[in-house]
Amino acid sequence: MSTFHTTRRVEFRDTDAAGIMHFSAFFTKMEEAEHELLRSIGQSVYSRSKDGRLISWPRVAAECRYRGPAHFEDILDIAVHLERMGTSSVTFAFTFHRGDDLIAEGRITTVCCRLVEGSKPEPIPIPPEIREQLQRYLVVA
Q: Which of 3, 59, 63, 74 is the most buried (most CB within 10 A)?
């Protein structure tokens, strides 16, 4: 199992009047880290599978537990791994650190869906080529 790492700076737009990172900004940073992980394996949250199907990964759940404050201009290390990979869903787990300080822990669950114009997203099994690439980030209990 590998853990994907990226960094993000706390920008002024991410903070409240006291200069502390607003709780909602953590969700944006988690999504950015997820997108970066997918790009690192040659995928995207909006792409085509080998058989030509247009697929995307709508979110079905998101949560974040806050452990300490992050401040304007802090550089946060965001570690990402897969907590679970089902037939069509993936749960990404995130930890935010500033140096040795744990700032937050979060999760986002997404579902692999086929997109067809004019209809709602249809859950599909994760294509084998994507499953294989994601497997390296899956925590095996």
A: 74
